[in-house]
Design brief:
- The complex is a heterodimer of chains A (91) and B (431).
- Chain A has 91 residues and is mainly alpha-helical.
- Chain A has 4 helices and no strands.
- Chain A has a single domain, classed as ACP-like (Non-ribosomal Peptide Synthetase Peptidyl Carrier Protein, Chain A, Orthogonal Bundle), CATH 1.10.1200.
- The longest helix of chain A is centred in the middle third of the chain and has 17 residues.
- Chain B is α/β, with parallel strands linked by helices and 431 residues long.
- Among the domains of chain B are: 145 residues, Rossmann fold (3-Layer(aba) Sandwich); 88 residues, GMP Synthetase, Chain A, domain 3.
- In chain B, the strands form 7 sheets. In chain B, strands 6-5-3-4-7-8-18 form a 7-stranded mixed sheet, with helices on both faces.
- Chain B is globular, with a radius of gyration of 22 Å.
- The C terminus of chain B is likely disordered.
- Classes of the chains: A mainly alpha (91), B alpha/beta (431).
- Chains A and B meet through helix 2 and helix 3 of A and helix 9 and strand 23 of B.
């Protein structure tokens, strides 16, 4: 999966969590800043990404210990999460 | 007991506010001038549910109610879906929300409430999760609880990040009032707002949960966003993980990290972290004893609750309380490594899986329901729900989700719902 496809998927997952109430840009922060997601909504997004990864034939890992150590960077922005999603699809 | 008069004396001539909130600040002498809620209807010994938050009106009503020797049940709007259950379990006589005072008529009695009334003591009812079933109504002797504030103690400028219906939140508010400190109520609980509030008001102590600290780490806003004034960050109510604590200590070497440990059943327990980067802690304080039985921490405390209003006493014959926390012991310091029961903890808010299942089972065509905690790096845990439909019928997943959202607080909402055979999972496990 390329990064553009991953961005599209991540943005659609966030859109669903926010019920389409806001416009999502790829540099939008996921935590803090102008983020519209609270911690519970971010969990929803990650679970949706798990399901979407499944549909694309790979496993999206965001809960294991190794994922946790990456979590500081991967939840920084929409683009960062998309990059991690794309990377995991290539493994 | 006349708290407002006593506090007025302590605050006389002091010009700084005791409370800074989103819409301004409040000095203690302004409290008396506040529009009082008409409490003429409320009698000593009444069980009074106060639905509020850390706003001036709720604080004033809270102090007046303690003065009236009522049995106080502090609640927030977040748990509104459970309020009817809370009113019933705590035998609530009066409900106050804003300036609205409403009496509920019932003929229920409880021996512990009658004992408090006979002593003319104020009471405090808090709700907590139990080992089985629905939240338990914990009754404390508030008159005894208030005695801790008689001895003056130093205060540090604090954010009140805790909730109005938690023992820790109330303790912070009362400690600040009695010791002439300042407590700041943040605009929201977002990482950005909390850090901005810390900087703006030169906050010294920030009480948090591990979930909040994980969010702060992921936000990338530290260390730059943390003001120099911040000396102590406390964390509690859910289990902290070592990688998060290590990362925090590395980024904020001048901040002391302290673990807190409390159970509404035991009152306030003093805790001392072995060091900033250690999850080992010493549990103690005056009148508090600890022991470990089969790796589980037990505590005996003189400030413990009187009992539950809707369940059996959890204390053994000698007064020991089983915390259900599995601990590792090292030189009288304990580290919590797990729980013996099925409590789910989402961002520090605890509840039983059965609470979610009970609501799911009320939805049409749901025959079996199983709610499970799943770990995640954001809120620690979240709930996933599996429901099994009655024979030859289908469960409307969207409808079920809406039904659950109307009945459950946000943190208890299952983040994933599956329609499948609930029994198979169990059998599969056993095989």
């Amino acid at each position: 999966m390329n990064i553009e496809q991953a961005k599209e998927i991540v943005i659609s997952a966030i859109n669903t969590a926010l019920e389409g109430k806001a416009e999502i840009t790829e540099d939008m922060q996921l935590i803090g800043g102008e983020s519209l997601l609270d911690s519970m909504k971010l969990v929803e997004v990650c679970l949706a990404l798990e399901d979407l990864a499944d549909e694309h034939g790979f496993e999206f890992d965001w809960t294991s210990e190794s994922a946790m150590s990456k979590s500081r960077s991967m939840f920084r922005s929409v683009a960062a999460l998309a990059e991690e999603f794309a990377n995991q699809s290539e493994v | 007991m006349d708290i407002i008069e006593k506090l007025s004396e302590r605050w006389s001539g002091i010009d700084y506010p005791f409370l800074i909130h989103a819409n301004g600040s409040l000095k203690f002498d302004e409290v008396a001038k506040q529009q009082h809620v008409d409490l003429a209807e409320v009698k000593s010994g009444d069980v009074v549910a106060l639905i509020g938050d850390f706003n001036p009106q709720s604080i004033l009503s809270l102090l007046q109610l303690i003065d009236k020797n009522v049995i106080l049940v502090p609640l927030t709007v977040d748990t509104r879906a459970q309020h009817e259950y809370f009113f019933e379990s705590a035998l609530v006589d009066v409900v106050i929300e804003g300036s609205d005072v409403k009496r509920i008529h019932h003929s229920q009695k409880h021996v512990l409430i009658d004992e408090l009334k006979a002593k003319e003591h104020a009471g405090l009812v808090l709700f907590s999760t139990g080992t089985t079933g629905r939240p338990k109504a914990i009754l404390h002797d508030l008159t005894l609880f208030m005695q801790r504030f008689e001895t003056p103690r130093p205060t540090l400028k604090t954010i009140n990040f805790l909730l109005f219906d938690h023992i820790g939140g109330l303790n912070t508010l009362l400690h600040t009032l009695f010791n002439k400190g300042t407590v700041v109520a943040p605009k929201s609980r977002s990482v950005e707002d909390i850090l901005a509030t810390c900087a703006e008001h030169e906050i010294e102590v920030l009480p948090t949960t591990p979930t909040f600290l994980r969010m702060i780490l992921m936000s990338g806003l530290i260390p730059e966003g943390v003001p120099k004034s911040l000396r102590i960050i406390t964390y509690g109510t859910e289990r902290m993980d070592q990688p998060t604590l290590d990362a925090l200590c590395e980024l904020l070497p001048n901040v002391e990290f302290r673990q807190t440990f409390g159970m509404s059943e035991l009152g306030i327990v003093r805790v001392k972290s072995e060091s900033s980067n250690s999850l080992f802690m010493k549990v103690g304080g005056e009148g508090v004893e600890t022991r470990v039985v089969d790796n589980v921490l037990e505590i005996r405390s003189q400030t413990r609750m009187l009992g539950y209003l809707n369940a059996e006493s959890p204390f053994d014959d000698e007064g020991w309380y089983n915390t259900k926390d599995i601990v590792e012991e090292r030189d009288k310091y304990y580290k919590v490594t797990g729980r013996t029961s099925e409590v789910i903890n989402v961002g520090g808010l605890k509840f039983m899986a059965s609470e979610v299942e009970r609501v799911a089972l009320q939805y049409e065509r749901v025959e079996l329901a199983k709610a499970e905690a799943k770990p995640n790096p954001i809120t620690g845990q979240h709930v996933e729900l599996t429901v099994q439909s009655a024979c030859n019928s289908e469960v409307d997943k969207v409808g079920l989700k809406m039904f659950l959202a109307a009945q459950l607080p946000n943190h208890m909402m299952p983040k994933r719902i599956r329609v499948a055979s609930v029994g198979v999972g169990h059998r599969f496990k056993r095989i």
